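Annotated sample (chain length 577).
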Amino acid sequence: MKTMSKKIKSLLAWVMALMVVIVTAIPAWATTTTPSDTPPGSGWTEVASGSTAEVIIKGLTNGAKVNLYRVIETTYKDGSLSHKLVPDFETYLKNSNKLSGINASSSSEDVLKAYLALKSGNSSSNTGTNTTLEEIFSGYLSTERTSYQQSGEATNGQVTFSGVEMGQYIAKVTDAGTGETQIYQLVSVEVEPSVGDDGKYYIKDDYEVDIKSSPVTITKEVNGENKDTVSIGEKIPYKITFPVPVFGSDVTDKTIVITDTMGKGLTYNGDLVIKGNDNDQNIISGYKPVVTIGNNGETIITLTFNNTAYETLKNYESITLSYTATVNNEVVLGNNQIVNTAKITCDGKTVTDEVKHSTYAIVIDKYDGENGKKLTGAEFEIYDKNQVDSNGDLLPDAEPLDTVSTVSGSAIFDGLEKDIYYVKESKAPEEYAIDPTLHKIDLTGAQTPDKTVTFTRNYEYTRSLDEATTAGYPFQVRKDGRYGWYADSSDNVTFVNPGQEQSGWDPAYIKGITYSITKTENGGTQAYELKVENNKGPQLPSTGGTGRKIFYVGGAILMVGAGVIFVTRKRMERKNS
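Output written by the structure step:
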């Protein structure tokens, strides 16, 4: 009897030690809420054969699907608990070479002891790698397991599993839900009894688990300013920001792909900078994007961060990509016609964000005041609001933004921001009097662009970037998204996709644009039409600008002449007297 008593005591001690290991050895990567009050009490039930509990998985998006995979079975009989590994999990541990001293011929008892030792942090794997429960679970679930106990779909941010038998489980989100972009981690669920003050086993009515997740998201913006409207030749600083995703241990492919698509009216300037936490510069040195041209002439920038690059990215909370693009000659007029879209793709999830810009035009309608005939040969200048004084007159040193000439009565100032401008006629058609009016055009207010204009841009090319920049076109000419090049010493320009140019070719730039206007129609958001009437008569200098300078110079000459005459007369009077 004494011998039998000693065996029973030894067995009970081993079981109690096993319970302590199971109840307390919850991995750091999982968040499990275990009973905090002492049983017996409210919310606790005395354990019986076949006892079950509720498991509540929280922190989910609605529609997320969750599976519970059982790895340890705990049973109660005659006042004692027993434990064993489920067959699939035991087989995996035997054949995976993950546990110290365990192989395919090991006994079930040895495998269980080795697993619990690893679970408690008192052992390592055979290979010295994959020594954590997270990695054990990840390897186990890398093969599809159909023998999970339950599955459920989240409502109100959680899934409730009823009738869950005692033991240890892995909770895995198998589907984040339609349109959802969370990356969920594996979590351990411990449904294990606790010993009450009375020495009996009790199980909690429900066990709550907060599952960890990481959002997949991206933000696209203009760095430091609001740029709803832009003008041709303007350089726009863009910024893309995304939080670095934290992948679940079951995710083996941690590739992150960033794609930025710019409409054909934007030229990428090749100045991408990668920052960690919007601070550290070029955290992945030499990492360059792949630049391609899409079917509609759009520029597509692609950055692929593979598993190796992710090891660098994960040291930061967020990554920022900064670069500039220039509004080029292919820009489309109208509201929100310049679109720049950023996209992040990882773990089968895709999220996009975009920035839109607008650009406009002022169309000149030049006609004879008597018969309505459309007039060719008039020249107009456009000035920004800073070139005009408080009286509405041009400053003496005012310089025009651009000068255009009418053909068949039409001219156009192309690619303008929505702002206040001043337009004046600087040269009238032959035999006509110049219009002296300085026309104020407020595209932000009364003169809202409400026309659609059909026109063609005709280019004069140059090899000189300085010449092009002076003309207001600091970019390589584009056509259907392709870039223009001088392939030889002639003036012919060849258009090819990025990377298709040959050694020795010179980039082609624009030094001048003329326009062929087909028609201007009511409706749309592209242009404001300024109607200017001319009548036959002598040409008079216009107000402000060059005309004003002529008056100033002429007045000065008259004053000097009057002074000379006055002094001469005085000398003659003295001589005669």
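Annotation: The longest helix spans residues 545-576.
Annotation: DSSP finds seven helices and 37 strands in the chain.
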